[in-house]
Q: What sequence folds into this?
C-alpha cells in the first residue's frame, strides 16, 4: 500500500515538474503571454505549480481508479487533467463575470491552457507507466 | 471507516483523499491568485496563471 502511494505521488510530482518546464517552453514558442517575471523566478514558480498539478492528476487517478472509463492509464490521466482544467476554467469564468476588471479572459491563453492540460495528462500517464505503477483502470481495485 | 470502505481504508482512502483535498485547495489559491489565503501568491504565480489560460489581470 505504501509502495503504491509513493509510486503515484512520485510519478505525479515528477511528471508535473516536467510539465511545468514544458509549459514555459510552449509559451515562449507561442508568445501567448509575454513573460513578466525573471527566468529564475518563473522557473521556480512553474516547477512548484507544475509539481502540484501533477500530484493532483496522479492522486485523482489513484482515488478514482474504479470509476475512470478507459482501460489505459494514459487516456484516464488525460481525462482527469482536462476535466480538472475545465473545472478551474469554469471557476475563472465565474470570477471574470463577477469581477471583470480583475479577471480578464484571453482566448489565445485559454486555448494554450487547454492544450497544456492535455499535455499534462499525457506526461503523467507516460511517467506513471514508466515508473511501473499499476495502471488505474476500470475495476482494478 | 472500516465498515464503509473496507480493511485498511484509513491509509488507502482517507489519508490520500485528505492530502488531495489540501493540494487541490493550494492549486485553487494559485490559479485564482487568492491573496487573502496566501499573501504574495498573486505576484509569484502571475505568469503561470496566464500561461495555463486562467483569467487574470
A:
Amino acid at each position: 500500500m505504501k509502495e503504491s502511494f509513493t509510486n503515484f505521488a512520485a510519478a505525479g510530482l515528477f511528471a508535473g515538474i516536467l510539465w511545468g518546464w514544458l509549459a514555459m517552453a510552449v509559451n515562449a514558442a507561442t508568445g501567448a503571454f509575454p513573460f513578466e517575471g525573471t527566468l529564475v523566478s518563473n522557473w521556480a514558480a512553474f516547477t512548484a505549480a507544475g509539481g502540484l498539478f501533477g500530484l493532483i492528476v496522479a492522486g485523482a487517478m489513484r482515488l478514482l481508479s474504479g470509476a475512470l472509463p478507459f482501460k489505459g492509464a494514459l487516456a484516464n490521466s488525460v481525462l482527469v487533467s482536462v476535466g480538472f482544467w475545465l473545472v478551474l476554467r469554469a471557476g475563472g469564468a465565474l470570477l471574470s463575470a463577477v469581477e471583470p476588471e480583475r479577471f480578464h479572459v484571453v482566448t489565445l491563453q485559454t486555448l494554450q491552457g487547454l492544450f497544456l492540460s492535455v499535455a499534462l495528462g499525457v506526461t503523467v500517464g507516460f511517467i506513471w507507466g514508466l515508473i511501473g505503477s499499476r495502471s488505474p483502470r476500470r475495476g482494478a481495485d | 471507516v472500516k465498515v464503509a470502505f473496507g480493511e485498511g481504508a484509513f491509509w488507502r482512502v482517507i489519508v490520500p483523499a485528505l492530502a488531495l483535498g489540501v493540494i487541490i485547495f493550494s492549486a485553487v489559491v494559485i490559479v485564482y491568485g487568492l491573496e487573502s489565503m496566501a499573501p504574495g501568491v498573486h505576484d509569484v504565480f502571475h505568469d503561470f496563471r496566464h500561461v495555463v489560460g486562467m483569467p487574470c489581470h
Notes: Chain B has a mean pLDDT of 77.
